[in-house]
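We were asked to recover a plausible sequence for a given structure. The inputs and outputs are reproduced exactly as logged, with field labels preserved.

PROBLEM: sequence recovery
POSITIONS: 245
GIVEN STRUCTURE:
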């Protein structure tokens, strides 16, 4: 796994300004960095239709790809935009976060996707891939760390405060060293297939596989595999019935 982001921040090998620039825009040059800083300074909280129009114009030159009809609300936080690819008609509601920091695959979002207020897609060297026609509820967190890959298929419905964490567990065998110093076990990633509904406050753990058309009830913890069209809930989530049966 790549060096932990915390170690990249708290080090004395680079100046604070260099660390900040690398985490915000990656290896992009100073011209990109200055445009990024100007966009944050003057447009991030600019209200109304003018703010929406100017943010769309400014971010278009910074994203790796930005499709037609994008909407970027007030207070949206974006890091390493060159590693973020957006399809058509993507809506980033006020206060949403797209954070692709690190050296991994970044964030790919399909078309007709709504990322609600306060929701976050966050990478730490990992990769997140969302299909099309997806809703991510308020306060939800989708995270990918290290070599992890988190993939969510088309037409997924992700309710408020869902937590999808693609990250291996901390190593904990040694008791004479902090777990932070021992690093992470290899990640198995997360695969959520097409037309899945995750209820409010669901937690999806690393290694989970959720089949097409499945429903996960609110407050559930998903580990392992949920088969297609299953209705599952509980901690851990267990299959209670199948849709259409």
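RECOVERED SEQUENCE:
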């Amino acid at each position: 796994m790549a060096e932990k982001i915390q170690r990249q921040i708290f080090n004395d090998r680079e100046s604070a300004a260099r660390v900040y620039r690398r985490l915000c825009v990656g290896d992009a040059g100073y011209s990109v960095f200055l445009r990024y800083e100007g966009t944050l300074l003057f447009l991030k909280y600019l209200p109304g239709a003018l703010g929406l129009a100017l943010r769309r114009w400014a971010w278009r030159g910074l994203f790796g790809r930005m499709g037609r009809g994008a909407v970027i609300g007030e207070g949206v936080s974006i890091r390493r935009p060159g590693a973020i690819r957006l399809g058509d008609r993507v809506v980033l509601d006020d206060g949403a976060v797209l954070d692709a920091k690190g050296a991994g695959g970044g964030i790919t979002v399909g078309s007709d996707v709504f990322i609600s207020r306060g929701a976050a897609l966050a990478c730490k060297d990992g990769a997140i891939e969302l299909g099309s026609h997806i809703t991510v509820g308020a306060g939800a967190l989708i995270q990918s760390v290290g070599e992890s890959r988190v993939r969510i298929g088309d037409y997924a419905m992700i309710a408020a405060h869902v937590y999808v964490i693609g990250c291996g567990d901390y190593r904990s065998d040694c008791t004479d060293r902090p777990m932070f110093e021992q690093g992470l076990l290899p990640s198995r990633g997360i695969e959520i297939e097409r037309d899945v509904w995750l209820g409010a406050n669901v937690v999806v753990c690393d290694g989970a596989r959720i089949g097409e058309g499945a429903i996960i009830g609110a407050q559930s913890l998903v580990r392992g595999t949920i088969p297609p069209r299953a209705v599952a809930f509980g901690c851990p989530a267990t299959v209670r019935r199948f849709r259409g049966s």
